[in-house]
Amino acid sequence: MNITDTFRRPIRDLRISATDRCNFRCVYCMPKEVFGPGYQFLKLANLLSYEEIARLAAIFVDLGVQKIRLTGGEPLVRRNIEVLIEMLAAIPGLDLALTTNGSLLEKKAQALRDAGLQRITVSLDSLDNAVFTAMNDAGFPVEKVLAGIGAASAAGLNPVKINMVVKRGVNGDSILAMARFFRGTGHILRFIEYMDVGNANGWRMDDVVTAADIIAMIDAELPLEPVDPSYRGEVANRWRYRDGGGEIGVIASVSQPFCRDCTRARLSSEGKLYTCLFATRAHDLKALVREGASDAEIAEAIAGIWRVRDDRYSQTRSSQTVQLPKVEMSHIGG
Ligand code: SAM
Ligand code: SF4
Ligand code: SF4
């Protein structure tokens, strides 16, 4: 079945949050003031089981999904995540990726690869330990993430993508050092504009360093040229070093929204379907699954949700929309 929404956008990508838990407390995602001791995470019985996730994933693929990205919270903190990867890898024709903070990657990379994972993105916000630990707020050192990236590369998950969220006044000074470090490694560094996902992070426009500023800063030292997108709906704007040092990306969802081509759906760890990263409401697929709905009934429900989708939050962002009760990033994983 090929379904499109009210803006004629097909459903092509599905991000699946394996858990709402994380061993980091990144200031832009799970600040301790909100996600500190006492915060109620979901109970295991309320999470979709791996069998339920795999079943829903297959239904999404029948509806047109070609790529699935596992995310979190932190996906590697859910026990035996490689078992889920193996189940998803068995779905024919699927591009299977995962985003991780890298903390458990050194141990897990080979098992993930062996289970059938094809691509990996590792988040790293600075090479400076003082800056990085202030951002992850869990005392986690840079070296361990670098060891995880090395293990992923050795396991054949190349090229590794590296995500760096840039927050003004926090890690803006790390941009050039990150560019220099990853240039020539074959890994693809991607700079992400800090976004107003959820409400916990207290986002302000002033905290955003725009993609244009990031590119200008790098280009002044390491000349860049643009690269054509590889497909419609690609999230990152691609650039390459003019001297052949490789490629970088910038995800400019605040300064250059890309809703027009947004083909992404998100499934939370408790089985709710979100049609936008900034959604204020969701659709409970777990209830359908646990009430005994057939595959055809679930497919029809998803198709019905997608057909009326009219999300374009980033094109309408304003000081009013920032206040809306939006879902937190740790529930849907970016
Ligand atoms: N825990 C994993 C990780 O950090 O890679 C996966 C989930 S995390 C929510 C997915 C991505 O979203 C990470 O690259 C993270 O840096 C990014 N992210 C989180 N909060 C963000 C925000 N407010 N603005 C922009 N990116 C954000
Ligand atoms: Fe955890 Fe990832 Fe959010 Fe950081 S960005 S708190 S690592 S889920
Ligand atoms: Fe897609 Fe919503 Fe992001 Fe726009 S704001 S690109 S519709 S997820």
Overview of the structural elements:
The structure is a single chain. Helix content is 32%, strand content 17%. Helix 4 runs parallel beside helix 6 (142-154). The chain contains 13 helices and 12 strands. The protein has a 12-stranded mixed sheet with strand order 7-8-9-6-5-4-3-2-1-10-11-12. It is globular and about 60 Å long. The protein has helices spanning 32-35, 50-62, 81-89, 105-115, 129-136, 142-154, 175-182, 211-221, 285-290, 295-307, 313-316, 319-322, 329-332; strands at residues 13-17, 67-71, 95-100, 119-123, 161-166, 188-193, 224-227, 237-241, 247-251, 264-267, 272-274, 283-284. The mean pLDDT is 96. It has a single domain, classed as Aldolase class I (TIM Barrel, Alpha-Beta Barrel), CATH 3.20.20.70. The chain is of the alpha/beta class. A hairpin with an 8-residue loop joins strand 11 and strand 12. The structure holds S-adenosylmethionine (SAM) and iron/sulfur cluster (2 copies).
Present the secondary structure layout:
Elements: E1 13-17, H1 32-35, H2 50-62, E2 67-71, H3 81-89, E3 95-100, H4 105-115, E4 119-123, H5 129-136, H6 142-154, E5 161-166, H7 175-182, E6 188-193, H8 211-221, E7 224-227, E8 237-241, E9 247-251, E10 264-267, E11 272-274, E12 283-284, H9 285-290, H10 295-307, H11 313-316, H12 319-322, H13 329-332
Parallel strand pairs: 1-2, 1-10, 2-3, 3-4, 4-5, 5-6, 6-9
Antiparallel strand pairs: 7-8, 8-9, 10-11, 11-12
Helix pairs in contact: 2-3, 2-10, 3-4, 4-6
Bound molecules: S-adenosylmethionine and iron/sulfur cluster (2 copies).
Summary keywords:
334 residues, binds S-adenosylmethionine, globular, alpha/beta, TIM Barrel, binds iron/sulfur cluster
